[in-house]
Amino acid sequence: MIKPHLVVDASVVLKWFRAEEDLASEAQRLLDRHTADEVTLCAPDLLLYEVGSVLRTKPDLDETQLVSAVDYLQHTEIVVFPITWKLLEQAVRIAFRYAGSHRRLPTVYDACYVALAEALDCEMLTADRRLVSLLDEHPLVELLS
Fold this sequence. Notes:
Elements lengths: L4 E4 L1 H6 L8 H12 L4 E5 L1 H11 L6 H13 L3 E3 L3 H13 L10 H13 L2 E4 L2 H6 L6 E3 L2
Parallel strand pairs: 1-2, 1-4, 2-3, 4-5
């Protein structure tokens, strides 16, 4: 049986380190499914920078804890895809295609996750309600639940 692939963005992965936040238990269940080999979690390589950068801003994490978090993330074995020029071009197109009525655009960062989901023909999960509302008509974008 082929395991389904799911693209996850940084908002999902960050919940693994912030158990008190909204949707953290859902994110943990998703990681448990990945660990149990029920699904394969995937992300563009920018996930690594985003997660590291956001965790660095958390005042309750010192250097040792952040290094441990990075080590933990590495051992989750998320399949990380490099951002190619073709993927970046598609992300730019997505960002503009889903501009809101006030020209609120999804960021190209966010659109890279969607472009990867399109390339892999799988769902993209996010814990970011704002992003879901910006991309509400995209068939592959889902709020983590």
